[in-house]
Amino acid sequence: MEVFFYIAAVIAIISTIMAISGRNAIHSLLFLILSLLAISVVFYLLDAPFIAALEVIIYAGAIMVLFIFVTMMLNIGLEEKQEKSWINPRMWIIPSILASILLVDLLLALKNMPTVVVGKQVILPKQVGISLFSTYLLAVEIAAILLMAGVIGAYHLGSQKKKVLHRFLEKK
Amino acid sequence: MLSVPVETQILFAGILFFLGMIGLLVRRNLVFMLMSIEIMFNSAGLVFIIAARHWNQPDGQVMFIFILSVTAVEVAIGLALILQVYHHFKTLDVDAIHKLKDE
Amino acid sequence: MKTLIALIPALPMISFLILVLFSGKLSRKVAGWIGAGSIGIAAVLTVIVSVDLISALPEIKSYQITLWQWMSVGNLSADISFRLDSLSLVFCFVITFVGFLIHSYSIGFMDKDEGIIRFFAYMNLFVSSMLILVLADNILLVYLGWEGVGLCSYLLIGFWYKEPENGTAARKAFIITRIGDTAMIIGIFILFLSFGTFNIQDIMHLASAKWVAGSSIATITAVLLLGGALGKSAQVPLQTWLPDAMAGPSPVSALIHAATMVTAGVYLIARTNVLFSLAPIVQGFIAGIGALTLLIAGFSALTQHDLKRILAYSTISQIGYMFLALGVGAYSAAIFHFMIHAFFKALLFLAAGVVILVLNEEHDIFKMGGLRKKMPAVFWTFLIGSASLSALPLVTAGFYSKDAILWFALSSTSGGVVLWIAGIVGAFLTALYSFRMIFIAFFGEAKTQPSFQAGYLMTIPLVVLAVFSLFGGFIELPASLGNFHLFSNLINQSLPVVGIKNVEHLEWLFQLISSLIALSGIYLAYLFYYKKPVFIDSFNHSKIHHFFEIGFGFDKVYDILIVRPVVWLAEIDKKDFIDQINISISNMALIGNEVLSIAQNGKLRWYLLTFAFGIAVILTYMMTK
After folding, report:
1. C-alpha R_g of chain A
2. Domain ranges of chain C
3. ipTM reported for the complex, 2 dp
4. How far is C357 from chain A (nearest CA, A)?
5. How close, in Å, is residue B41 to chain A by CA atoms?
6. How far apart are CA C256 and CA B74, in angstroms?
7. Could B21 and C612 be called an inter-chain contact, meaning their C-beta atoms sit closer than 8 Å?
8. Which of the 8 DSSP states describes residue C138?
9. What is the pLDDT of residues C298-332, one digit of tens each?
10. Which domains does chain A have, with CATH numbers?
11. What is the DSSP letter of C428?
């Protein structure tokens, strides 16, 4: 079992690195999908099969498809040269240093973590559903409103606006 | 039963998070920046799942579902904005878009 | 009834505040009517209060009202309090009544101007300050009004600020009057140090009790107060600002630079007459300055080409007459001439404003000509104004007021023949230049076409003022002609009566002389400027003509004596120690700007990097604690 976790983790990390360092947007997105699939394996191993399914269906499926559509609409795949000129090795230094500092911080925090042993068991989707629609009902409502706002916002922003002239410049 | 220590699991999530952060800081292309944000969101969700298993509570998974819906909205709006930016500036270079005002 | 006094200056102030605060929301018409209406109501209130006060005379000499305490520090205290006696009553009446006519004229005059709301706001502030000046009970409040009118004068001269010359003229007026104002505030300090109070009545009583006539402190104080009066009233040597002040709109010239503000000096001297009677040298000096000013300004007016500059010099000259009267102690004559002058000079400026407006900003009288037929209403009113200005005998108000001054210049105990001769020559000059304007601008061939006819809003005030310029004089008739002393009886309630030498039986003779002088001036104007003999051309090109035209070269002298040395000093002192400190402060601000603007460069990735940096710092701190 542990072997699967480590394999999935390594695949996820490597494909994520490929995704963020790639030049071609489509390739990066495919690597990202690979990473998400690997993470969904981890979810499964962490006794959350329902979440693993959601990860595949919504993340790797819906959201990434949205990305790919937009990327294709923008024809970014053809701009590798430009992408190359935007990234030079020096730019990686400072963010990498910052990230490694934070990683060290995380390690320190993990070292100090108290060990609590709770009996492990699979959490079934039923439990999640009951919790979702009882304890977190209000949050669900808010999430629904947020999704609605997202739909309207995306529609509004996505529509190509007509060029509006000032009323003095309009032709009568 | 998976017997990987919980610290290792969180470390894995942390590495993913910091990779996302590096991507966000390094890339100039808006699409890649949005992808990096997705990676960071996802790793945050991963920590919730790890915690849910660690404490044996369904709440972590509930949180993941919320993160999922927020991510969905964020991606939809973000991509729509990217389309508008590209339409308007004819580029996706975030450094070229530094006029925070109406044209 | 007494509380109404406070409303008189308050109404224009309220209107000013309305116009300033709601300037964006008011329409131009409404703004005009608010501006003029508030003055109109103030005028009605003034009449009501005046009738009340006059019917109470002579038992009650003044109404007094204290609104609130203005300031109180140690033994220094000043109230916002008003006092209405017959002197301030006359001034209030002129300010509100003439002010109302000028405001309603302005509705028509400024109709096309984009800054009409600003204009009425300034005008209302001016009227309010002027009313505070004349109503104030303590000298500090007088000074507040004094500075208020100075400010409004500055704002209104530079009203059309887009022309740089107008701004220069405004600054000139402000700076030159400031010289006088500085002298005046020092005088006020001396008064306060000596008597420990600002109240004018108390000061006057204490001064006459404590100070010896002719003592040096009384003389110094009187000179300092006189300095303020000279600056504000444009008398020699501080007269140079007034001709340039004509850069403002014509209603401004009419209200501020003819009818009211420039006579504030007359008011000040009349109000503090006790101090001047304690300093007989200064009082004689006032008469001398008045005589000198009226001659200089008269000669200058004779040679100007600009219609409004002629009127400006004429104003200086007429105020010179008032100073002459003040100098010989004939206060009621001075105030009488002030009132009549306000009528006819406002009329002349308003009529000139119409002429200039309909001729599309043409100021040069030699380019006008033949306007008599083109705009009869303006011609007749202008003619009446000029006749009153040149003291046409018997029929005009100007005759009675000027004649009174000339008579007292001779007959007063402190008067003399020299002053009288100066006055007579001035009267001759006045008649000459007044009718020079008439003959050149309104007679002869037409050289320009009026672009439109003035509306009723502009002509009705002219007619009203013309009526007053004709008949306003009949409230005060000299002993030889009717012997009717309504006005001087009123004024003498609050000001001392002039002492007269025993020559009263000769008054008719001197009246005859001054009448003949005025008539001969008009006739000579007819000869010179209508018939145009040859020698007038040669005079027009002579050096003396040029000397008169530049106002006796005062500007040049001041430029050489004061302006250039000061500029030279400022030039060599450009980078002194203090400046270095100031420059280093500004440099520090610039460096700070450069450093901090890195944080605000609008680049998203930079912001993200600083986010991440901040998180790293905070987390590292938390972990290593």
Report:
1. 22
2. 575-624
3. 0.89
4. 32
5. 11
6. 68
7. yes
8. B
9. 988 888 888 899 999 999 999 999 999 998 888 88
10. 2-116 (1.20.120.1200)
11. H
